[in-house]
Amino acid sequence: MKRSILFDTETTGFDPDMGDRIIEIAALELIDDLPTGEVYHVLVHPERDIPPEATKVHGFRIEDLEGKPKFAEVADGFLEFIGDSSMIAHNARFDFKFVNAELKFCGREPLDYASRAIDTVEMARKKYPGLPASLDALCRRFGIDLSQRGTHNALLDCKLLADVYVELMGGRQRGLGLAGPSRSRSMTDGINALASRPPRTMAPPTAEELQVHEVFVSTIKDAVWHRE
């Protein structure tokens, strides 16, 4: 039995070296590459402001995070959930860099990227060379429902990425009966709780704005990690 963790973060910006912080972490447990329904999800107070351009992406304002724990207060719970499992993320270097910056900031050991990271962007580019590898593009390619995706959020993005990952690993014919009803409900409850969050005061981004953002994020992330 192989256990892995699929995870995503939302942040105040693109670079922790410039003072950006995590504001949301979501992680899903996979057994033999299929979701079990076990979910870790937490909102984090970043101890700084959230720039308006970041709010346009994920919908969070600093007012939404008042009273939420700081990363140092959730670090042990996150580390306990992930254990020593492999870590799957879409553009994994970006999320690893933020998580490791937060872990270092609160005196914890960083995660080892070389031995633990699985990057679904790299997987998609190898499987479909020359084609877009954004999460939206892959969902459309595999016929995965994007109707719940307005602004970005870590929990819903993890749910979508879990479906994408199954397809990248060979498709659902590998067996979807792994998760029992009680475990499946835990994921559904998490998604429903996210959907029931009070609506933001801003207008939701248009489909065109989301498409432009996907291209922008991919460009910036690639630049950050390949500038050397």
Automatic annotation (TrEMBL):
Coiled coil: none annotated. The keyword Manganese applies. Gene3D superfamilies: Ribonuclease H-like superfamily/Ribonuclease H. It catalyses: DNA(n) + a 2'-deoxyribonucleoside 5'-triphosphate = DNA(n+1) + diphosphate. Pfam families: RNase_T. The keyword Transferase applies. Its cofactor is Mn(2+); Mg(2+). Residues 3-174 form the Exonuclease domain. GO terms for molecular function: DNA-directed DNA polymerase activity. Its EC number is 2.7.7.7. DNA polymerase III is a complex, multichain enzyme responsible for most of the replicative synthesis in bacteria. The epsilon subunit contain the editing function and is a proofreading 3'-5' exonuclease. DNA polymerase III contains a core (composed of alpha, epsilon and theta chains) that associates with a tau subunit. This core dimerizes to form the POLIII' complex. PolIII' associates with the gamma complex (composed of gamma, delta, delta', psi and chi chains) and with the beta chain to form the complete DNA polymerase III complex. NCBIfam families: dnaq, dnaQ_proteo, PRK05711.1. This is DNA polymerase III subunit epsilon. It comes from Gluconobacter cerevisiae.
